C-alpha cells in the first residue's frame, strides 16, 4: 500500500515518525513522509491508499479550508485515515474534524 504519513508539530515527531516509517516499510508498505499540509492538495494524498496523521494540526499548522475539504473528500471516498496519539484531538479551529 502507498501510505502518506503526515508529521510535525510540538511533540517529538522527529523521533517517532522515523520509527513508525521504518515499521511500516518493514511490513511492505511504501511510505511518503510530509510535514507540509500542501500534501493534501498537491496530488500526494490522491496517490495514497491511507493517510496517517502523526501530527496535531492546530495553531500555525492548522489546515486551511482547501486542505480541510481535501481531507473530508478523501475520507468520504472510502480511503483510510489513521490518527496516532494526539492526532485524534479536535483542533480549536475545526470542530468538524472530530466527526
From TrEMBL:
Pfam family, any one: ThuA
Protein's name in the database: ThuA-like domain-containing protein
TM regions (residue ranges): none
Gene3D superfamilies to which the protein is assigned, alphabetical: 3.40.50.880
Sequence ranges assigned to domain ThuA-like in this UniProt record: 4-93
Organism: marine metagenome
Amino acid at each position: 500500500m502507498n501510505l502518506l504519513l503526515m508529521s510535525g508539530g510540538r511533540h517529538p515527531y522527529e523521533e517517532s515518525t522515523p520509527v513508525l516509517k521504518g515499521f511500516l516499510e518493514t511490513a511492505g508498505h511504501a511510505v511518503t513522509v510530509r510535514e507540509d499540509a500542501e500534501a493534501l492538495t498537491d496530488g500526494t494524498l490522491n496517490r495514497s491508499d491511507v493517510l496517517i496523521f502523526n501530527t496535531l494540526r492546530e495553531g500555525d499548522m492548522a489546515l486551511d479550508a482547501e486542505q480541510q475539504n481535501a481531507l473530508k473528500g478523501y475520507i468520504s471516498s472510502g480511503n483510510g485515515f489513521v490518527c496516532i496519539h494526539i492526532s485524534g484531538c479536535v483542533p480549536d479551529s475545526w470542530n468538524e474534524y472530530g466527526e
